[in-house]
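dude i think i finally got it to work??
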Amino acid sequence: MTLAERARRVIPGGVNSGQRSIPGLTDLVITRTAGSRFWDGDGREFTDYHAAFGPPLLGHNDPDVAAAVADASGRLGLTGVAVTEGEVLLAEQLAELIPSIEQVLLTSTGSEATFHALRLARAVTGRRLVVKFQGCYHGWHDAVSLNVISAPDRVGRHDPTSTGILSEVLDATLVLRFNDPAALRQVFAEHGRDIAAVIVEPVPHNVGALLPTEEFLRALREECTAAGSVLVFDEVITGFRHALGGYQAISGVTPDLTTLGKAIANGAPIGALGGRADLMQYFSSRPGGPVFFAGTYNGHPLPVAAALATVRKLREQPVHEHVFRLGDRVRGELTALYERMGVPAVVTGYGSVFVSYFMPGPAPLSYDDLLANDTALFVGYRRHLVEHGIFELPLNLKRSHLSYAHTDADVDRLLEATEAAVRRTLAEGGPSDLTHTSTMGGAATTTGAR
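look at this
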């Protein structure tokens, strides 16, 4: 019996997260990672552009991060009381680097950070409603676990990612179109006095890459300020990958709260919630604070050591220069490749992130635009990339990432493999079975939600 078969006997589906069981790759077992590569149980080597949805910006098993974690493991264990020097150092650096952060609390995951952000916003404002945007993902908790990758007939109404969510919870979340300032202003005109928070990925990377317009980001800030609502930037993906100050440092729009995730520690399990001190003071980490905040693993010394080493390397070495240069090259040369092949495609992204949508231009601005993407070609060519030792996640609308460990030679191989994979997919007509290749939407519901 193979390891994958053994896994399916004792783990539901054989994997420990809902997007790890990939159609066509259900027997994939990972045995080793290093730099820009991973290896499977059959000894195959892959250049990894999926990269765990992006957090290892430095590459897998970065030696400086690994050394810092090894050092910390020899000195510190989990005590669950007081604070360590590493937690203080990390908080100080996050407050220094990220414009919105005056104070910060550490969590174990980005989902926890967004959960606490919304609970805080409701407590501070005394309001009920939360606004999110179609195509944005903010974690697994009920208030935001809806309308990520939705089928066309579910756009414009609540589309939960899971059953078991109460209709009352769904009804308290308003879902809007990304990059639509008019719709935003209209919902504030109608519901502004009851909107506790607006939460947004400044760049919705969970559907590839929708780049925000300056007008839209300004409107977010203006409407939240005018209504007294809390603006939350979910920078779990964009934080550190696009800039040490997050995308807010690039855009010049400063939210009230910012959530961060494993990318701040090159993939180690950590998250953070930071923002205005007057808001953060409501948490019960300050004696008497009315908003409960707890977590035994919060500030665990090993992920904290990984985060400190990651920040140090990002500050001292030309990481962003390297990955941005490679990103520009990939996007430019893929665009030329598709033009030469006569394949309608839009190659977009930002910095080290790239994605090819198989549809006519211009670049998409909202999830509605992405409904034109040729899912069969998108998924099909990525399945064939595996045969060339290249791994881009073969699920619809998923982005790809470059790391500090990737090289120009890796990009050369990526371009060659992409052309071969796309040609073969076109010749075959694309895969006929696309079941479970568009995830994060469409859960059946009996809750009566809209």
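The chain is about 35% helix and 15% strand.
im so relieved honestly
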